[in-house]
Amino acid sequence: MLEYIKRMRSRIGHDPLLLCGASIILYNASRQVLMLNRSDNGRWCFPGGAIELGETTEEAVRRELLEETGLTVGELRLFGVFSGEELHYVYPNGDEVYIVDVVYTSNQFRGELTIDEESRAYQFFAINDLPAEISPPVAPIVAELKRRHGLTV
Fold first, then answer.
1. Residues 6 or more apart from 76 whose CB is under 8 A from it?
2. pLDDT tens-digit profile of 39-98?
3. pTM, whole model, 2 decimals?
4. Which residues make beta-bridge pairs with 20?
5. Which of 22, 33, 92, 133 could form a disulfide with 61 if both were Cys (CB 3.0 to 4.6 A apart)?
6. Cα 122 to Cα 111: distance, rounded to the nearest angstrom
7. Are the C-beta atoms of 68 and 116 separated by less than 8 Å?
8. At 87, is the secondary structure helix, strand, or coil?
9. Per DSSP, what are the bridge partners of residue 49?
10. Digit-coded pLDDT (tens) for 122-140
11. Phi, psi of 110 (to 5 degrees)
């Protein structure tokens, strides 16, 4: 957890906090997308996380990808900005957030894929075979991804 968020949580407890994050839909050569199985709720998500004070969304997504997977990414393309009630979430520890997620895509990455303590596993999935157990704030992003690939949601 970022120091800024820790500081805010020490002041407001579990009350709602507006968080801005950045995440990435990373495609491999087979057009499959990388997903991580979260340690906290056992559901699948895309790599990403909260933006640090003074950080750009591009810097944040590059940092988060490296921290969570050991991968570095090349060119980023904006996929979309997601917000609203659909991105309201209460973490298993009781922390409540409303997320604004700036989502990028890329197929340019390098490095050896590993995971940190935030994830239990990683896997590349075909768009038409994504896991059913999606982390709730990621569900609207998955729905849009499927829509753009001509799949019914």
1. 24, 58, 61, 62, 104, 105, 106
2. 989 999 999 999 999 999 999 999 999 999 999 999 999 999 999 999 999 988 999 999
3. 0.93
4. 100
5. 22
6. 15
7. yes
8. helix
9. 22
10. 999 999 999 999 999 999 9
11. -150, 160
